[in-house]
C-alpha cells in the first residue's frame, strides 16, 4: 500500500485524484521487493488494463532517448505499435528470467501460444541496480514476477520498492515515482524507474540544488563525472492516439527528464514508452478493428505539456519517496527526504 510523503509540486497543470499512473482508468501497478543484506532488488509490474492483454492489445509508442540498455520486447512493440503483455520493470541481469516468467504466464492462459498461435512478445525494461544490489546473486526468480503481477492495484507504493529497491539517482536513493496531469478532458500519467544523474546536476523546480546536497553526503564524489545509470519512463493516457502519436508523446518524456538535470549521458539508458487505454486492438483477425476518431495533431500540444510535467514530477516523487538503503559491501544510498528535511528552504 502507498505511504504518504511530502514532495515539491511541479508545473502548472492539475493532477489526477491519485497523482499516479493509476489515474488512467484500468491501469494498476504491483511490486515485489527483495531486501536482505547484499540483495536489494525487486520487480515492478504495470498492468495496462484488467483484461487479457494478449487477446485485447493496446496501442503503444516508443522513444529511445539513449539506447544504453538491455530491455526485451521493444523491437516488436515499436514495429507493431502494440502492447500484448504487462510491462515488467526489473534489474538488468534479471531480464531473461522475467521475460521467461512473463511468457509462461501468457502460455498458462493460452496454451496455443507458440504452437497454433504466434509467440508472445514479453515486454521487460531494466535499469542496473548493481551499486547496491549483488547482481551476480541472480536473486530474482520467476515467482517474484508472479507475486508482483498478483499484487497489482490502483493504490501502490513509490520509492525504494519493487524494481526501485536498489536504484540510485543523483548520488542519492532512486526508485519508483509516479504522477499524473489532467488537460482538456484527458489524463496523461507517468511512472518512472529512476536510476540516473550526476549528483551536482540535480535540479528541482528550476533550482540546481545538487552542489548543496553533495556537500552533505559523507562519501560524496566532489568531481564532476560522467552520467551513468538509466531511467525508464512509462506514460499512460486515455486520449485516443495511434501508435505514431504515442511515440511523439513518449519523446516529450525527455523534456521532463532534462529539467531534473539529465543530459542523457553516454552510459545512461533512457527509454520512454507511451500507451493509450482509449481503445483495444483484437488479437483475432476475425474480430473487427475498432473505428476510433483519433485526436487531431493540432490538439497534441497540451498532452505534450502534460507528459513532460508528469515525468518531471514522477522523478521528483521517486527521490522524495525513497528511503535510505544499505546494500552489498556496506554501500549506502541516502534518501533525499532524510538528507534534506529543509528542502522547502533550499527551493525557496
Automatic annotation (TrEMBL):
SUPFAM superfamilies: DmpA/ArgJ-like (SSF56266). It comes from Roseateles oligotrophus. This is P1 family peptidase. PANTHER family: BLR5678 PROTEIN (PTHR36512:SF3), D-AMINOPEPTIDASE (PTHR36512). Belongs to the peptidase S58 family. InterPro entries: ArgJ-like_dom_sf, Peptidase_S58_DmpA.
Amino acid at each position: 500500500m502507498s505511504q504518504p510523503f511530502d514532495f515539491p509540486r511541479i508545473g502548472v497543470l492539475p493532477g489526477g485524484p491519485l497523482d499516479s499512473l493509476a489515474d488512467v482508468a484500468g491501469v494498476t501497478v504491483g511490486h515485489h521487493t527483495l531486501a536482505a543484506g547484499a540483495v536489494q532488488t525487486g520487480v515492478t509490474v504495470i498492468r495496462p488494463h484488467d483484461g487479457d492483454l494478449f487477446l485485447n492489445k493496446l496501442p503503444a509508442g516508443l522513444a529511445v532517448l539513449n539506447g544504453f540498455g538491455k530491455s526485451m520486447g521493444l523491437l516488436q512493440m515499436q514495429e507493431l505499435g502494440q502492447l500484448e503483455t504487462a510491462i515488467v520493470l526489473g534489474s538488468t541481469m534479471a531480464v531473461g528470467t522475467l521475460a521467461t516468467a512473463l511468457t509462461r504466464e501468457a502460455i498458462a492462459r493460452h496454451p496455443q501460444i507458440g504452437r497454433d498461435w504466434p509467440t508472445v512478445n514479453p515486454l521487460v525494461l531494466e535499469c542496473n541496480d548493481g551499486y547496491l544490489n549483488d547482481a551476480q546473486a541472480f536473486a530474482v526468480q520467476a515467482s517474484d514476477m508472479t507475486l508482483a503481477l498478483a499484487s497489482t492495484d490502483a493504490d501502490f507504493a513509490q520509492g525504494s520498492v519493487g524494481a526501485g529497491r536498489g536504484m540510485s539517482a543523483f548520488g542519492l536513493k532512486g526508485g519508483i515515482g509516479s504522477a499524473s496531469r489532467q488537460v482538456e478532458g484527458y489524463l496523461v500519467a507517468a511512472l518512472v524507474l529512476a536510476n540516473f544523474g550526476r549528483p551536482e546536476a540535480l535540479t528541482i523546480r528550476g533550482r540546481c540544488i545538487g552542489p548543496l546536497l553533495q556537500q552533505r553526503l559523507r562519501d560524496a564524489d566532489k568531481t564532476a563525472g560522467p552520467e551513468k545509470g538509466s531511467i525508464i519512463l512509462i506514460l499512460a493516457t486515455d486520449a485516443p492516439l495511434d501508435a505514431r502519436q504515442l511515440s511523439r508523446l513518449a519523446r516529450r518524456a525527455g523534456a521532463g527528464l532534462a529539467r531534473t538535470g539529465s543530459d542523457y549521458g553516454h552510459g545512461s539508458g533512457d527509454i520512454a514508452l507511451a500507451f493509450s487505454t482509449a481503445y483495444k486492438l483484437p488479437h483475432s483477425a476475425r474480430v473487427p478493428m475498432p473505428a476510433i476518431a483519433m485526436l487531431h495533431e493540432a490538439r497534441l500540444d497540451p498532452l505534450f505539456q502534460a507528459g513532460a510535467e508528469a515525468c518531471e514530477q514522477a522523478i521528483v516523487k521517486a527521490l522524495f519517496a525513497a528511503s535510505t538503503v544499505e546494500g552489498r559491501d556496506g554501500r549506502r544510498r541516502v534518501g533525499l527526504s532524510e538528507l534534506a528535511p529543509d528542502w522547502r528552504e533550499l527551493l525557496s
